[in-house]
Amino acid sequence: MLDPKNLFQNLERARTKLAQRRSNVDLGQFEQLYQKRLDAIRTFEENRALQNRLSQDFKKVARDPEAGPRMREELKVLSDRIRELEKEAAAAEAAINEFLLFVPNLPHDSVPVGESEADNVVVRVVGEPKKLDFEAKPHWEVGQRVGVLDLETAAKVSGARFALYRGYGVYLELGLARFMLDVARESGYEPILPPYMVLRESMMGTGQLPKFEEEAFKTDDLYLIPTAEVPVTNMHRDEILDGERLPIRYVAYSSCFRREAGAAGRDTRGITRVHQFQKVELVKFATPETSYDELEKLVGNAEEVLKRLELPYRVSALSTGDIGFSAAKCYDIEVWLPGQNTYREISSCSNFEDFQARRAGIRYRPAGDPKGKPRFVHTLNGSGLAIGRTIVALLENGQQADGSVVLPEALVPYVGVRVLEPR
RNA sequence: GGAGAGAUGGCCGAGUGGACUAAGGCGCUUGACUCGAAAUCAAGUGACCCGGUGACGGGUCCGGGGGUUCGAAUCCCUCUCUCUCCGCCA
Question: Does the C-beta of A91 come within 7 A of strand B?
Answer without folding.
Answer: no
